[in-house]
């Protein structure tokens, strides 16, 4: 029984590994961002070979590229959070969200209680999943390495689906225990949830994943917008990853 649960959870972690969509691939092909993507012979292994056939160096390089792309949306998402602060009716929630945004902008990694204090704020207007503005939804899609070139209702539905799946995986992983995962499985789970784990030690990755699971398993379905934003909130400044 225990063995089957371990195998199932490992399959779930690997099966949900990041698969960049057409938007990411197209952006890299066109070279519209400021990063140096390298010569065509560098891009071919990433686009034509599945991850299993990447060399260790290619895995690190390609995951860095994908994370650099999704990280570009982080300041935009924080900006959208700041813009809706005046729309929050509760003064305490307004203060908490202002404080959280300030901490992240100053390079501070937020504590678990800083994020969970905002559960109510993300369960209804203006930050509930169904109340997010179109540009906000597009930025969140990019943060999840999903194409943003779809109508907002479809983007919102897909984000909700992806977040729900991650939430379900989190519950299963919490029951199983992080200690049951190998180092590579832990790094893959962290990367899926927004952390660039390629240059972070195993122990630090396990600590971060533990923080994520503590937040995720405290949330109800109506509060999953906070889990979606946690891809940015919890990962941006962890151990100097903001560079």
Structural class by SSE content: mainly alpha
Low-confidence stretches: 1-41, 43-49
Give the termini separation: 43 Å
Order of helices and strands: HHHHHHHHHHHH
Oligomer: single chain
Average pLDDT number? 82
The number of distinct helices, counting runs of at least 4 residues, comes to 12
Main sheet, how many strands, which sense, barrel? Answer: none
Quick one: overall form? globular
Helix content class: 55-70%
Strand content: under 5%
Rg (C-alpha, Å): 18 Å
Question: What is the total tally of β strands?
Answer: 0
Number of domains: 1
Record the SSE blueprint.
Elements: H1 2-15, H2 22-30, H3 40-48, H4 56-71, H5 74-84, H6 91-105, H7 112-116, H8 134-143, H9 152-176, H10 183-192, H11 202-216, H12 224-233
Helix pairs in contact: 1-9, 5-6, 5-8, 8-9, 9-12, 10-11
What does the model show?
There is one protein chain. The chain has helices at 2-15, 22-30, 40-48, 56-71, 74-84, 91-105, 112-116, 134-143, 152-176, 183-192, 202-216, 224-233. The termini are far apart. Helices cover 61% and strands 0% of the residues. Mean pLDDT is 82; it is low at 1-41 and 43-49. It has 243 residues and is mostly helical.
